[in-house]
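Box 3.1 — From sequence to structure: BTB domain-containing protein
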Amino acid sequence: MSLFQTRGSPYFYFSTDNGRTIKSEMADSKVDTISRLAQWRIENSGPYSYKKSDPFKVGIWNWYLSIEKNRCLCIRLFPEPSRASKEQSPIAKFVIRVSNAGAYNRRPYISPVHERLLRTSEDFICPVDSSAFHGRLIIDVEFLDLKICPLNGGEASSIWPGDGTMRSLSTQGILRCLSRMLDEAIHADVTIHTADGTLSAHKAILSASSPVFQSMFHHDLKEKESSTIYIEDMTLESCMTLLSYLYGTITQEDFWKHRGSLLGAANKYDIAALKDACEESLLEDINTMNVLERMQEAWLYQLNKLKKGCLTYLFDFGKIYDVRDEIGDFFRHADKELMVEMFQEVLTVWKPV
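Predicted structure (token representation):
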């Protein structure tokens, strides 16, 4: 007996000693994939009670399909046991379609959209009426989404780019353009005079960021006529940091270094988001060396959260005793209403023995 296979045939052929040729079905376990679609073609589903496909890759996992014939045709989809499937278990959202190959007049079976966590072959079983399908079968699995389920809990995240990813890429591109506009003064149309130098900027960016700047260029003011702004209470470096914020290219290091000047500019030019960011930042590192200065800034710029944080630090946590040498000078220059508010805070936390 000899074994051979014809080119392109899905069958093995056995040649017996008496010259007879017997056709035997080849192990049709290969799954083809393209994009997010996996297709398993089964040449003959009749004689088999169980079939399992070869592994196929979609996303970061290798997958298997299997069919089992009993009272119905049961289709299973499951990931190959591996470190990836164990540590990053997939949550698959998919649709299964079953049809007879070449049977155009027979309606295919299309499953509902399934979405579930898959770890083993027992996690998903799709029963299909076996009487409707026989012979050559085509099983399609269309993956609509694949998410990673973290081991330590938390929200699952898709492995494929979505709207958020595209928006992020778009934002990065815009920021690169804005950075070039600022650094290279591309079509700059306004000059800013600072305490120690000049900068170039764009009226449209300034106007969109600040109603104060918008008013300067909208009404017949000298800034509109001369295309010049004087910000002489800021240094060149701190003003450049302000522009970097408005153009979306500021670094954390520069923000931290110039947040005092940025707070003053945010208040002066009514840049609410920057003012809030400065307040949150100043709240993060209150200590005995800066608490009184922060209290004064909170009062000056009407930062209620920062003011409350300073009062809590001084009185609830008893740090007022650590600044007793500085408190006298503070009170000599402090606003009377601020002094009254601080005294009221003392009465609130003071508990007579």
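Summary of the box: The two ends are 107 Å apart (CA to CA).
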